[in-house]
Every structure is written in structure tokens, then in C-alpha cells.
Write a structure and sequence with these properties.
The complex is a heterotrimer. By secondary structure, chain A is α/β, with parallel strands linked by helices. Chain A is built from 15 helices and five strands. The chains are: A alpha/beta, B alpha/beta, C mainly alpha.
Chain lengths: 423, 350, 365
């Protein structure tokens, strides 16, 4: 119900603080907006923080990821927070052997392991390491092993007791379980004498031993690249076309709208799949495929807004004053279009990331070694029974990012759209 | 239960027993507040008004003076604004004490409202007959579908529309016809009081004239009391019995129509009348009041009109004048007609 | 009778009946509109199918070589090329293609099973339908219910709750939701089966007439089969339905909020109409009109989601078939499947337009 003043503010009618308020900057206004918009303000605030955090992670993944996402940094399929098992050397109590370095050189020493465990690798690694040490010190001779595999840990230990093997290499937890059964055997410590920090991984490792968390962090970069590139591409193509069609009208408008509507009505993912399949696997082609999908969205909104603005009285007035089309388009119509486009953009990025993840989930586009959320999800499917963390976290990452952008867009819509305000 | 009219002190009695001229609806000291981003706006500021049975009361003022809000307040439909002070006496009861349910029962049945824009006031998906029968059967559930339809047809006919058209949709009617339909809706249950909020603003002059004639006829035939909210003084002169003038959310003047036009008291009202172009006068320039209506966030101290008033006195910027009788039933809120110990000297004369 | 035909009958007959009813009951202009609209469907489908054709023909690389592999002899390549008619000029190929589509001669898939594609689709289209329909019902129902509730309780906890729900559900990648549900209900809780449409054993007892297993089991009174079908159907349908419901909740909410602020709603309240009647008779009815227009577009999301859901749950529908064929570079099959999708979209679009024109009396034709 407040009425505007038509004459210059009279000090008797407009208090000083109101004048000052109008001079105060954007930040102050934003904070005051909190009281007015209430919960919606929180929606936008929280999601903006999330989006900012995500962008920082995506641009500088190396600051946040503690491991290389392509390297095997741990044992396979380690669950989150679980410590990898240590391989220990088990020797007879009264024997003279305490470590692999005690083995005779150039003799194939029999060592017992349980099959299908990393034990043999651990033993061999240590043997090689010692051999290298010797060579580096100028000596000669090699530590050689003859690995004997047994079905169970128990059988491996039996062979040591029987004297067929000089030592056994098994996991520490396995030995802990059986130590009572083998009183003549003892653990002489970790096989590898190199200092080994047995670290756990906060989100576990995948089937190739890569750190899930690091892959997630690097995956953010891919997601951002795809999401933003596709959205910007759609924007760059869709907005001018929409402006053109709305402004010029006629046959151009009809033809363009027909094409755009056909694309819009068609199931997006299927179109993207088709395009990606046709163009071949590469990140660029994925971006193109997704971009094509969203061009009609920008086109329609911009065209609608343009048509509406075109009919506004002030545009007619400008035209009657002789303003050129370019000026009308740039000065009157474009600024009206911007708010709605800004809101679409954030939702668009969210959608693009979602579609991108879907495409890579289906196996179309990115090289299989790329640390990408969709790929990780797809590869984790086979281990759904044994390793639940492989599918949970990549999907969660996608959801959080999409959520952040969508919430931001949602909140902005509520704040910008005057029709949604109560009368 | 009876009560007294706020201004006149006359009795406010039960609707059905009222005789013409008795107070039907009395607003006492009513204020309506709106919360905005930058502060509290008093759209209506302590207004008192008595409405008499059988009259057509014109409620005039510029855009933003609070007249529409006052009309809505009479039906307790000021959302999101709040009625912060005052009482609304109708039918022996303060409406502000009623439950939502009771209030809903009054609306449409005893109190009716006709809105400004006939284009958007009707449900585009419902036929006219459905609008009417729904209203009837909501308040009188015992009425059968057929009887309700019959009533609707007769009502439509009385209002000058062809009865066959009752099965048509709103978009098939013109603006003037739709306003008649709105009146029909207000009359469907024989409301005592109809508040018409700028009913002719969206209509062209000829249709407007027909509409006003219709209002008068209906008032006589249906025993109606009408509050006619408008910014058009011509409409008021044409059809109103009494006129109330509002400014900046407050009552400025209240008089019979002839008294208002011939013996205007409040300087604002005087300015309004002076501004009406007179085709016979040879004036080189049209009269225009100085200044502009105030920002309701910062209503001027004292009398709201004082910054623009040619007759302003020192006391006007200091104290708010009371809305009280000047001559008989002719009320005005102006220090020109009120005595006060602080009032110094002889103020500007008209 | 061919299963595809049966499916078309099941949906086609009520559709035609509905159209006939609208036609007879409606005004002259409505009839004209419906006829025009039906006529428009033909060019629309034509455009879509032509795009499919073009896209697959202008692909880089030689279709035949990449399909047969580098080891195929020149002779084999030549004979296959001739058999497929790939050495004819493009125009000739195009018209032959159109002719094939009309006669439903979709060719044979020449990779893997080497079955007529029509048969493959005949099995898979009903599977996809059995997934989409329950999902759509769930999504629409919950969407409208929650959306309206959120709109009338605006700015209160319920409103924010539902908005949060819809935003979260919409942000979830559908394949992730599917995998999670599978993890929880199939792997951990063992409440639902891991994959497939029906228990393998029970399958042998079921007579498949339409390939709509739900319908088939009811028709033959095979309650064991019905139980198994429902048991298998629930997770995939829930997955697809949940994601879509997020969209509908948002849509309904915004439209109901806007209609609640319209003048005619306020005028109705001023007449003392009960709030319930105002919400349903005035606000919701009017709000549904923009929602209906968007429903048509949501079918696109539904189909896209179906593709992903079918992949996750190993559901033998058209979506999964499409992906498999693309990865195997079986272009004949891909072409035909996309064409069927296009037809589907066109028909839904037609249905939506007709429904819209019936609902809104203001539409001038």
C-alpha cells in the first residue's frame, strides 16, 4: 500500500535513514532480505555455500585428494575405515630366521602362503627389495623364493611345522585366529621391513585398490567440466536463437520452434545416448550431446519472454521514438530476459551433471579409467553384495551436487518471482 | 444485543428489524496494518464510520488512500494485512470476535462483495449456473439442485441477461455482463450489505451508466445497502446518498452528497472538487493540488494533509484533528472547525 | 496373434473409444481441432523417424565393417551391404525404410540372436509398459497429493518438507536410487528379488498372451504368477515413480499457489464458499491445466528414466535393449527401437493435447 513520492524527497516526508538505506550496498540488502524471505533465504544461502565448496574442490582437486585416483594405493575392496591386513612372517619358535633378510642368498627358499591372498606378492616384493639393497651396497647375490601355495592358512602353517617350508607369510589376523593351534610357531613381525603405514581409507578402496574418496574428488572436476561446458554451450546457442525467433517472428520463428519442440518433446537421455553413440566416445562428444539436449529449454523461455516484452508498451514507445531494432533488443528486451535465464542456468547445470553421470554409467563416452562418478557407479555394480561403499558414495556425490544447484535455483525462483509472493 | 453507532450514537439493531436510516454496520476506530519489507504501513488508520440501512454510501479517495482496504476489512478479508485495532459492529455483534467459520457463513449470505475486475473474478472452468448454485447451496444446503437452478435463472433474468445463457462459461460474456453476474452472486442470498469495490473502473462509460442505474433499482427492489468504493467523483455524484472521503488511510470528510459538493469542508475534498475540469469555465490551466499523497510508511505528523494544505496552521503539523461533526451530520477532520487551546491565531482562510 | 498387436489393441481400443466420445459430445470446433491434431501427428512422427534415419546414415565409419569386424572378407561385406540395401542412393534407402516401418517389417537384428526385430520388441515393449505405467500412476498420484498439500500449507513446515523431498528425490540419479533400493531390499533385507520380471520357475506355468505379465496372470487366474510379478515389479516401478514424483510435486505446488492467488478464488471466498471447495473446485481444477500440458513432456523423462531403471534392474524392456544394441553397434535394431519410441512419444503428445482441449473450455480452435 505504500505510495511512491513523485516530487523530490522532502526532508519532512522521508526520514534520513530511508535515504541512507537506498545508498547501502548489495551485501547489506542481502542480509536484510533474510528477515523478509525467511526460510527461502536459508535455502539459497546454504546451497550457495555448497555450490561454492563444490566448485573449489572441482578446480583444485589436488588440494583435497590425498591420493592419486588412478594409482593402486591399497588392497582391493577395503571397506571405509578398515585397516588393511598386515602380512607377517611366521617362523618356528626356536629357529634362526627372523626376517626375509635372514634367508640364504641364491637359494630358493621355500615359503608357504595361502592361495588367493596378497601374501605371495608381499613376500616377493620384500625379497626383491632386499636384493636391490644388496646390489646397491655393492654386493652380489639374490634372495630367491619358492612359493608353495596351500588351500588354507592352516595347511600353510602345517608345512612350516613339518619343516617343508622355512617360513610362512600370512595375514596377521589369520594368524591371530590360529595361534593357539601352533604353539611352535611365532610371528616375527611384518614381512616388509620397510616402514609401512597401514592406513585406512575414509571411503574404502575399489576393486583395483584405488582410493574411493580421491576418485570422488577428482570426479568433481569431470562433472564440473561437463556440466558447465554443456550449459554454457546450450546458453550460447539457445538464447540468441530465442531472442531472434521471438523478435523476428514469422517463418523463421515457426520453423525454429517446430525443430525445438520436437527435440524438447523427445526423451532427453535417449537423444543424448543416440548422439553420443553416433559421435563416438570422448568427453567433447558427451558435452555436445548434452548441450543439444538443453538448447530448446533456453530457446523456449527466452522466446516466450521476448514475445512478452515485445508487446510491452514501453517497447512500442521506444519504437515510436525511432529506436533501432538492435537497441530495442539490447536495451529493453534482453535485460528482461536475464533473470529467468539466470535461474534456468543453475538448474541446467544440475541437469547436465545428472545426464552426464547417466551417460557414463551406461558406458558411453568417457575412457574407462577416468575418475568419473558415473563410471565408478557402473563398475561398482558387480560388487553390490560385497562392497556396498562402491555404489553408495559416487551416487551420493552426484546427488549432493545436483541438490546444491537445484536448491539454489529453487530458492532464487521463490525470491525473484513476484507472482509467488502473497498479496 | 444492541449497540451504538460509533459516530451517531444511534442504535445498531438486528438486520431484519432495521428500518431505513438505522445504522446497519458500524466501524469503530478500525486500523489495518500491512507489514512490508521496509516497515509497517497503516493502510487504514483509526477509521470510524456508520452505514445506514438502505443508503448508497460512496467511499472516495485517490489510489492508495485505503478505501479498498476498508472495504475488505468490512468482510474481514484483509490478508496479508491485519486488523490491528477497532471493532466491526454488524447485526449486534463485533465481527472481529466471530470464529472463521461464522465469518464464512456471513460472507455471501449477509455481506456481499463485488470486485473491480470482472474479467478475472469468475472461475473460468465453471458455468455461470454452477457459480450461482454453488453459492446458494453452500449457505442453504437444503435447497435442491433444481430449485437452486431456478433461482439462478430468475436472478440472471432480473439482471438483464438472457436466461438461456446460464449454461455458458465466463469467457463468453463481456465485461459489463460479467459485472452483472457478480451482482447476481452477491444477491443470490439476499445480502443485507453489498460492498462494491470500484465496480465500474474496468467498464466503459456507457456500460457504467447502465450499471449504476441497475444498482439503484436493485437497492430499491432488494432492500439493499451499498457501499460504493470509487475514485470517480462523477459516479458518486450520480448515485450516492452520502459520501465519505478518505486520505492517507484516514477519514477526511463525511456528508450527504449535496452537502459535500455544495458545502465542502475539508481542504482536501475542496481540492478534489476544484480539480474536476469544468467545461464551461474559461480557465487557462487545470487546477492541481500541490504535492503528492504521502508515503504511508512515513505519514506526516499531525494532520496527514498538512504539507499540501493551503490553509495549514501551526497546529496542523503538530496534532491530528479529530473526525467529528461540523454541522449536523456533516463530519470533517480539520483544525479549521475544531477548537484547541494550542491553536494559535487565525489560520488560513478558505 | 502377435504380442505387439495385442498391446496396441489394449491401449488403442480405449483410446479410440475415448476419442469417439469426445468427438460426438464436443462442439463443431472441437471436432475440427481433434481431426487436425490427429492429422498433425503424422508429420510429427515422420520428422522424428526421418531424423533417426538420417542420424544413423550419416554416421562416421562404415556400418557394415564395424559390425562384422575387420576380419570379414570382402565378399561377405559386399553381400551384406547388398542385402541391407546400403549401396542404394540415400533417397531410395529412405523410402524403402519408410515402407518397412509402415508394414512393421523392421528387419532382422543381425547381431547376436538374429531374430526379427519385431519379435524382440514384441517381448520388450510390454515389459517397458509394465514398468512405466505403475511408475506414472504413483508419480502423478503422490505428486498431485503432496503438491496440493504443500501449496495450501504454504510457508509452514509441511510446505518446506515437501519441497525438500521433491528437490532431493529429483536430484538423485535414478540409477543410484535403483542401486540403493536394490542394496537395501534385495541384498540386505532379502525382501525382493534381485532381477527379472518373474520368478523363473513360476514363469514356466504362465501362458503369455499379451506379454503384459500382470494382465496375463490375471487372465489365466494364475495367482502365484501374479504374486511373483508384483514382487518383481515393485522396486523398479518405485524407483522410477519416486524420481518422477519429485517433478510433479514441484509442478503442482507452484501452479496451485498461483491459482490460489487469482481473483476468482478471492471472490469465491468473499461469497463464503468453504475452503475445501475453493481448494478443489477452483484452485486445483484450474491448476491442473498447466500441469496436464507438462505431463506430456514428463513422458520424455519417464522414458529416459525407464532406460536407466531397466539397466539397473536387468529388466528386459526396450530401454535396456536399446543400450545393448548401441553398444553392440547393431544399427538396424537401434533404428527400429528409436522409431518405436518416437511413435510412443507422438501418441502421448496427441492424447495430452486432446485431454487439454476437453478440460479447458476457454481454448479456441
Amino acid at each position: 500500500m505504500a505510495t511512491e513520492l513523485e516530487s523530490p524527497p522532502d526532508p519532512g516526508q522521508v526520514p534520513q535513514w530511508e535515504l541512507e538505506l537506498q545508498q547501502v550496498g548489495l551485501v547489506r540488502r542481502m542480509l536484510r532480505a533474510r528477515r523478509w524471505h525467511g526460510t527461502d533465504w536459508w535455502f539459497v544461502a546454504i546451497s550457495s555455500v555448497m555450490v561454492a565448496a563444490f566448485l573449489v574442490i572441482a578446480v583444485f582437486p589436488q588440494w583435497f585428494a590425498s591420493h592419486d585416483p588412478l594409482e593402486q594405493v591399497g588392497p582391493r575392496l577395503l571397506s571405509p575405515g578398515e585397516l588393511p591386513e598386515q602380512e607377517i612372517l611366521v617362523v618356528p619358535v626356536d629357529g634362526s630366521i627372523a626376517a626375509i633378510s635372514d634367508f640364504e642368498l641364491d637359494v630358493r627358499t621355500p615359503v608357504a602362503v595361502a592361495q588367493d591372498t596378497p601374501s605371495s606378492d608381499a613376500a616377493r616384493d620384500e625379497a626383491d627389495r632386499i636384493t636391490d639393497e644388496i646390489a646397491a651396497a655393492g654386493g652380489e647375490g639374490r634372495v630367491r623364493l619358492r612359493i608353495a601355495r596351500f588351500e588354507t592358512v592352516g595347511e600353510a602353517l602345517d608345512s612350516v611345522v613339518a619343516g617343508d617350508a622355512v617360513a610362512a607369510v600370512i595375514s596377521s589376523t589369520a594368524f591371530d585366529d590360529l595361534t593357539a593351534d601352533f604353539p611352535t610357531l611365532q610371528s616375527s613381525g611384518a614381512v616388509s621391513s620397510a616402514a609401512q603405514d597401514a592406513t585406512s581409507f575414509p571411503l574404502g578402496t575399489n576393486q583395483v585398490g584405488q582410493d574411493v574418496l580421491s576418485r570422488l574428488i577428482w570426479g568433481a572436476r569431470i562433472a564440473v567440466i561437463i556440466g558447465f561446458s554443456a550449459s554454457i554451450a546450450s546458453f550460447v546457442v539457445g538464447v540468441p536463437l530465442g531472442l531472434l525467433a521471438g523478435f523476428i517472428g514469422g517463418k523463421t520463428d515457426r520453423a525454429l520452434t517446430l525443430i525445438m519442440d520436437s527435440i524438447y518433446a523427445f526423451p532427453g537421455l535417449i537423444l543424448a545416448i543416440a548422439i553420443a553413440a553416433v559421435l563416438g566416445p570422448s568427453i567433447f562428444n558427451i558435452i555436445v550431446a548434452i548441450a543439444v539436449l538443453y538448447i530448446p529449454t533456453y530457446y523456449r523461455i527466452v522466446r516466450g519472454q521476448t514475445l512478452q516484452s515485445k508487446e510491452e508498451l514501453y517497447v512500442e514507445a521506444a519504437r515510436s521514438l525511432g529506436a533501432k531494432s538492435k537497441v530495442i533488443l539490447g536495451r529493453y528486451i534482453f535485460p528482461n530476459v536475464i533473470p529467468s535465464v539466470a535461474v534456468i542456468f543453475s538448474v541446467n547445470v544440475a541437469d547436465a551433471i545428472l545426464t552426464g553421470a547417466g551417460l557414463s554409467f551406461l558406458g558411453l563416452g568417457l575412457p574407462p579409467s577416468t575418475p568419473d562418478w558415473g563410471i565408478d557407479l557402473a563398475r561398482g555394480q558387480e560388487f553390490i553384495r560385497s562392497a556396498w561403499w562402491l555404489i553408495t558414495f559416487p551416487g551420493l556425490a552426484v546427488m549432493l551436487v545436483v541438490l546444491a544447484f537445484t536448491m539454489m535455483g529453487e530458492g532464487l525462483v521463490e525470491i525473484f518471482n513476484p507472482k509467488l509472493r502473497e498479496r | 444485543m444492541v449497540n451504538e453507532g460509533a459516530i451517531t450514537g444511534e442504535r445498531v439493531t438486528m438486520g431484519w428489524s432495521l428500518k431505513a436510516g438505522e445504522v446497519l454496520y458500524s466501524l469503530r476506530d478500525v486500523s489495518v496494518d500491512y507489514g512490508t519489507r521496509t516497515g509497517l504501513v497503516k493502510a487504514v488508520d483509526r477509521v470510524s464510520l456508520d452505514i445506514r440501512k438502505g443508503e448508497i454510501l460512496g467511499l472516495v479517495g485517490e489510489s492508495g488512500c485505503g478505501k479498498s482496504t476498508l472495504g475488505k476489512a468490512m468482510l474481514r478479508m484483509t490478508r496479508p494485512g491485519k486488523i490491528s485495532t477497532g471493532e466491526l459492529w454488524f447485526d449486534g455483534v463485533d465481527l472481529l470476535t466471530l470464529s472463521q467459520r461464522r465469518m464464512r457463513e456471513l460472507r455471501g449470505a449477509r455481506l456481499g462483495m463485488v470486485f473491480q475486475d470482472p474479467m478475472t473474478s469468475l472461475n473460468p472452468l465453471s458455468k455461470i449456473v454452477d457459480h450461482l448454485t454453488e453459492t446458494v447451496r453452500t449457505h442453504e444446503p437444503k435447497v435442491s439442485e433444481a430449485a437452486a437452478r431456478d433461482r439462478a435463472e430468475r436472478l440472471i433474468g432480473r439482471l438483464g441477461l438472457r436466461e438461456e445463457r446460464i449454461d455458458d462459461y465466463p469467457h463468453q460474456f463481456s465485461g459489463g455482463m460479467r459485472q452483472r453476474i457478480m451482482i447476481a452472486l452477491a444477491l443470490a442470498l439476499r445480502a443485507d450489505l453489498v460492498i462494491a469495490d470500484e465496480p465500474t473502473t474496468a467498464l466503459d462509460v456507457i456500460v457504467e451508466a447502465q450499471f449504476l442505474d441497475l444498482l439503484r433499482e436493485l437497492r430499491d427492489e432488494f432492500d439493499l445497502t451499498i457501499v460504493l468504493i470509487t475514485h470517480n467523483l462523477g459516479v458518486v455524484a450520480e448515485v450516492a446518498d452520502r459520501v465519505a472521503v478518505m486520505y492517507a488511510g484516514r477519514m477526511a470528510e463525511l456528508a450527504s452528497v449535496s452537502d459535500l459538493f455544495l458545502d465542502t469542508k475539508h481542504p482536501y475534498a475542496q481540492g478534489l472538487l476544484r480539480a474536476v475540469p469544468n467545461i464551461e469555465l474559461d480557465d487557462a490551466e487545470l487546477y492541481q493540488m500541490e504535492g503528492a499523497p504521502p508515503n504511508l510508511l512515513h505519514t506526516p505528523h499531525g494532520c496527514a494533509f498538512h504539507p499540501r494544505c493551503p490553509a495549514a496552521m501551526p497546529i496542523c503539523s503538530d496534532q491530528q484533528p479529530a473526525f467529528q461533526p461540523v454541522v449536523g451530520d456533516h463530519h470533517a477532520a480539520c483544525w479549521l472547525y475544531e477548537d484547541h487551546p494550542d491553536k494559535g491565531g487565525d489560520g488560513g482562510v478558505r | 496373434m502377435h504380442p505387439l498387436l495385442i498391446v496396441f489393441l489394449i491401449f488403442g481400443v480405449p483410446a479410440v473409444l475415448g476419442l469417439a466420445w469426445v468427438f460426438l459430445r464436443g462442439s463443431e470446433s472441437l471436432r475440427r481441432y481433434i481431426l487436425t491434431r490427429i492429422a498433425l501427428t503424422v508429420p510429427m512422427v515422420l520428422i522424428l523417424i526421418s531424423v533417426v534415419f538420417l542420424v544413423l546414415r550419416v554416421m562416421p565409419g562404415d556400418v557394415v565393417s564395424s559390425t562384422l569386424g575387420p576380419k570379414a572378407s570382402d565378399a561377405t561385406r559386399a553381400s551384406i551391404t547388398e542385402a541391407l540395401g546400403l549401396d542404394d542412393p540415400l533417397i531410395v534407402q529412405y523410402f524403402k525404410f519408410l515402407g518397412d516401418v509402415v508394414t512393421l517389417d523392421l528387419g532382422d537384428s543381425f547381431i547376436g540372436a538374429r531374430r526379427p526385430i519385431v519379435d524382440e520388441l514384441g517381448e520388450r515393449l510390454p515389459a517397458t509398459l509394465e514398468l512405466i505405467i505403475p511408475a506414472a500412476i504413483f508419480a502423478l498420484g503422490s505428486g498431485i497429493l503432496f503438491g496440493t498439500y504443500a501449496a495450501i500449507r504454504r510457508k509452514r513446515p509441511a510446505d518446506y518438507g515437501f519441497r525438500l523431498y521433491s528437490v532431493i528425490v529429483y536430484s538423485m540419479p535414478i540409477f543410484w536410487l535403483g542401486l540403493l533400493l536394490r542394496l537395501v531390499f534385495s541384498v540386505w533385507l532379502d525382501w525382493t528379488p534381485i532381477a527379472g520380471r518373474i520368478d523363473v520357475v513360476t514363469n514356466t506355468t504362465l501362458d503369455r498372451t499379451t506379454n503384459l505379465l500382470f494382465v496375463d496372470s490375471i487372465i489365466s487366474g494364475n495367482w502365484e504368477a501374479l504374486k511373483s510379478v508384483l514382487h518383481h515389479m515393485i522396486l523398479p516401478a518405485l524407483t522410477l515413480g519416486l524420481v518422477l514424483s519429485g517433478v510433479f510435486v514441484r509442478l503442482t505446488r507452484i501452479n496451485v499457489i498461483e491459482t490460489l492467488q487469482e481473483d476468482y478464488v478471492i471472490a469465491a471466498r468473499a461469497r463464503g464458499i468453504r475452503e475445501r471447495a475453493v481448494t478443489y473446485g477452483y484452485a486445483l481444477k484450474n491448476a491442473m491445466i498447466p500441469v496436464v500440458t507438462v505431463i506430456g513432456l514428463q513422458v520424455a523423462i519417464l522414458l529416459a528414466g525407464a532406460v536407466l531403471t531397466e539397466t539397473v534392474f536387468n529388466w528386459p524392456g526396450m530401454g535396456r535393449y536399446l543400450i545393448q544394441r548401441i553398444l553392440l553397434r547393431d544399427f538396424q535394431a537401434v533404428q527400429s527401437t528409436v522409431a518405436v519410441f518416437a511413435l510412443f512419444v507422438a501418441m502421448i503428445s496427441l492424447a495430452v493435447d486432446v485431454i487439454y482441449s476437453v478440460l479447458d473450455p476457454r481454448v479456441k480452435y
